[in-house]
Amino acid sequence: MHSKTLYIKTFGCQMNERDSEIIEQLLAQDGYLAVDGADKADVVILNTCSIRAKAEQKVFSLLGQLREQKQLRPGMRIGVAGCVAQQEGEKIFSRMPHVDFIVGTQQIYQLPEILQRLDQGATSHELATDLDAAFAIPPFQQLLTHQPPANPEGFRRFVTIMQGCNNYCSYCVVPHTRGREVSRPVADILEEVEILVSQGIKEITLLGQNVNSYGMTNPVAETPTSFARLLRLVAAVPGLKRLRFTTSNPKDLSAELVACFGELDNLCPHFHLPVQSGSNRILRLMNRKYTVEEYLEKVAALRERCPQIALATDMIIGFPGESEADFEATMELLRTVRYHGSFSFKYSDRPHVRSAEFSDKVEESVKSERLARFQGLQDQISLERNQEQLGQEVEVMVESAQSEMWKGRTTTNHIVHFPAAAQPHQPGDCLLVRIDHAGKHSLRGNIVVPEAEIDH
Ligand code: 5AD
Ligand code: SF4
Hints:
single chain, alpha/beta, Rossmann fold, pyruvate-formate lyase- activating enzyme, CATH 2.40.50.140, six-stranded parallel β-sheet, five-stranded mixed beta barrel, globular, binds 5'-deoxyadenosine, binds iron/sulfur cluster
């Protein structure tokens, strides 16, 4: 049988990356072979993000380009999945009539049937965007756990522990595109991790929109399990070398979670803790439910517990009503915490969100100028933070070991480049590397040769 080819272009966050893996895994069962370009694919799926206006624009401009390809190859099928699909639904068909199917964030498991119906000519357009469809995910995830991964290569995987979000930060589209927060049962998560580790996976990242509130809403067991407890259980899976998680709302960061750092050997000392603004007035308008002072207490507790922890954050610049004084408070927070790195974005209005209705929008030119100031200071701090590692010997997990320069990652999530080892190594192997050069985005070093090897 001629196998069909599939190309998925993923936009946005790790949740989407994981969903794309699931789609590949599901469609591999029906004989679809993943290829690396739309021009070679029978089916093209854009797994989309709508977190900022720009992310959404990118999707529509790529769909525009695909229209031309489809004119040359009319048999090609084009689908939209993810957050833009959820948000825009059938409006996408009227704007982009060459799109064949639209699948929302909770409906990807329907893709095999959708493609079959299109193949059989039963329909010409397919739409599946139901949200909050009574958590269809547990049996579905269960099913996936027992299927071989589409790409058996690799040494790290994401494991979804919850979906959706209940926080309703005033700027954020996610509760509208991903639905209500639901936690996945502990036993399913542990089973998936155990299977992955037995297949040779070395690093697991637990995924959710707000992992810190795992088990708190819609508890899936009579006695809800906290995120910290889940972390302990996953960390104890024999053979798991590195454990990470993303992403967290500071308001739900518990003392119990702080205590996990320094206690669980394989929990990486790296924490992505989005703060969004350094001004209490703006944090209130954002509905973040914490103050700068409370945030700083949590940072201090983490650093006390685990001094080497690397902190990263997300920052929104130019939220409606942000004055120069509010922005200065954000700069002050950056100077105080001295993040190892951050993702910073100009505020943009999104559909359905409360802040879209706020007056007092900040001028585009002011947003750009503030963003440049923020990023300039962050770059300088990132460089200084990286320089703190000079001369240190750190454990690096190899990510690519092909050319003369290899690449790997420290437990603190820093990228390290280093000359190839004398012996061949696989991605996922750990080596000791001495850092001898620090740039603002990465480190360089040399493998520390064990004394026994020097003798030979
Ligand atoms: N405008 C700009 N940035 C946003 N983010 C979320 N919503 C918006 C918006 N409307 C940023 C936040 C979040 C990150 C994923 O994207 O910083 O943490
Ligand atoms: Fe983008 Fe948010 Fe959707 Fe992830 S959950 S794809 S970041 S809009």
